[in-house]
# Entry
Amino acid sequence: MHIKDSELTTTLSAQLGEKLEAAAYARLNTALSPARMLTPLGNYLVARPAARSAARKITDATDVPMDAAMVLGITADALHVWKADPMLNQVHDHLGSVPLSRITGLRVEGGRTWQDVRIILDDGNEITLQARGEIHAIASAYDQRGAGA
# Structure
């Protein structure tokens, strides 16, 4: 479904049947990510397949559902992940969630449109990605509930 950044939280809350504090489009970066800047074909034929492969490896290693591009949404007790296409503002299937008790840190670095995000897990694994929109609201909601609580 087509969802603008400003409508992600309310639309996905209704779909989930649970109140999302915030939601944002996100994407994984790989060594081939600069290909997305060439043309849409560079994104879909080079960057996206490489990121999807990296996402599978992250999911296998951490049990955190990931895809090349996704929407992250935070509730009172979990970080939810949907498969998405940020370029077209499309949100697809709900991939799953990770309990906030497994996350020991969620940090957002400054940036222009896309900000760097680090999700630190209780087993020491770190997931690095980029997100736009309300990613600072997700980090704030996480910080307000307390790390590892």
